[in-house]
Write a structure and sequence with these properties.
395 residues; Aspartate Aminotransferase, domain 1; Aspartate Aminotransferase, domain 2; four-stranded mixed beta sheet; 17 strands
């Protein structure tokens, strides 16, 4: 018999009833160190006082206003994002998937208004993840997401990741934009080097196509910059954000230059809940903290500590781990065992990690994690690795 909740997830048998900073508390009282942060969502950890205050204060005023009216909290958050980034304008969504949908529409509408309606093709890359809508799976057509889902939407061309020569060859008069993650998340924490991002920006400029960056997972302080592309010193034309931007409240955004957004006038796009007062009040509280230079410096400092300790762990368990990769507090442990085995052993060691493609286990802790908690995380990962290693030897 089918359960009341549609069984599309393989859920761990854990029932968390409370969160405190970097910790999740199971209903039986066990305290789990959360190195997943809701898959990079709880950027400021669980029940951060500033976020709780922002949400409860706004909840006592107004929860929802249609976008038929001015929304002060939305205007404030948009202004903060514009002031802190390349963008001239922002549209608020509820998720990364919704941001993907608008990014595609915006790029195509841009060319339509320029008198080039044939420019509709979006070039994407293998190993990417842009969400689970029809457009998103057409841009990243892995078997598990597209099998049995009917014909894919046309207008997408998927290329090998990192082959810039092939990218140049693949561009045609129909190419509207290129979309890429500065760091692939679901694809296994695969960062693009700064030089590659610079090359990609130059290729798009030379060909006269738009560059869309998907920073849904790697953005909002995750890499030690407010957005990951800043490390390369380049800017996109359109950028998708979500996850950490709401600190746990469903919130997403599309940021764009005035030029890239020039085709989007009244009636061209909308959202019932996108940019509602509750979400934007929390988003403002998140950005006040994370956009601060001292806070971002603390992320870099803690990332260095974590990376160093993880390198030692890899050396200690060469039968379990292959290498460490990633940037900032977006770390991947490349495994020689099934990632699911390490994640499961982590549950026994009371630590939360997240599996990914390419045999990788992701570590995406709250950006507020402390040095002591980093040390404790590595201790618990060591216990998990020992369990997996012993199991391998026994097998």
């Amino acid at each position: 018999m089918i359960p009341p909740v549609l069984p599309t997830y393989s859920r761990a048998p854990l029932h968390f009833v409370k969160g405190e900073g970097s910790w999740l508390i199971e209903e039986d009282g066990r305290r789990f160190l959360d190195m997943g942060a809701g898959i990079a969502v709880n950027a400021l950890g669980h029940a951060h006082p500033a976020l709780v205050e922002a949400l409860t204060d706004q909840a006592g005023k107004v929860w929802h206003l249609s976008n038929l009216y001015e929304i002060p909290q939305q205007e404030e958050l948009a202004r903060r994002l514009v002031d802190a980034t390349f963008a001239d304008t922002v549209f608020f969504t509820n998720s990364g998937t919704e941001s993907m949908e608008l990014a595609v529409k915006m790029a195509r509408k841009y060319w339509y208004e320029k008198g080039k309606p044939e420019k509709v093709e979006i070039i994407s890359f293998q190993g990417a993840f842009h969400g689970r809508s029809s457009a998103a799976i057409a841009a990243a057509p892995t078997e598990k997401m597209v099998k049995g889902m009917g014909p894919l939407l046309p207008g997408f061309k998927v290329l090998p990741h990192g082959d810039w020569g092939l990218l140049k060859e693949a561009m045609t008069e129909a190419t509207a934009a290129v979309i890429i993650e500065p760091i692939q998340g679901e694809g296994g924490i695969r960062p693009l080097a700064s030089e590659d991002l610079k090359t990609l920006r130059a290729i798009c400029d030379e060909a006269g196509v738009l560059l869309i960056l998907d920073e849904v997972q790697c953005g909002v302080g995750r890499t030690g910059k407010l957005f990951a592309h800043e490390w390369a010193g380049i800017t996109p034309d359109i950028m998708m954000a979500a996850k950490g931007i709401g600190g746990g409240f469903p919130l997403g955004a599309v940021l764009a230059t005035e030029e890239a957004a020039s085709g989007m006038g009244p009636g061209t796009h909308g959202s019932t809940y996108g940019g509602n007062p509750l979400g934007c009040a929390v988003g403002c509280a998140v950005l006040k903290i994370i956009a601060d230079d001292d806070f971002l410096e603390s992320v870099n400092r803690k990332a260095g500590t974590l990376r160093q300790k993880l390198e030692g762990l890899v050396a200690e368990f060469p039968d379990v781990f292959d290498s460490v990769r990633g940037q900032g507090l977006m770390i991947g442990l490349k495994c020689k065992v099934a990632p699911a085995d390490l994640v499961k052993a982590g549950y026994d060691a009371e630590i939360i990690t997240v599996p990914a493609a390419d045999n990788v286990v992701r570590l995406l802790p709250p950006l507020t994690i402390t040095e002591d908690e980093i040390a404790e995380a590595v201790t618990r990962l060591e216990a998990a690795a020992k369990a997996v290693s012993s199991s391998q030897q026994a097998g």
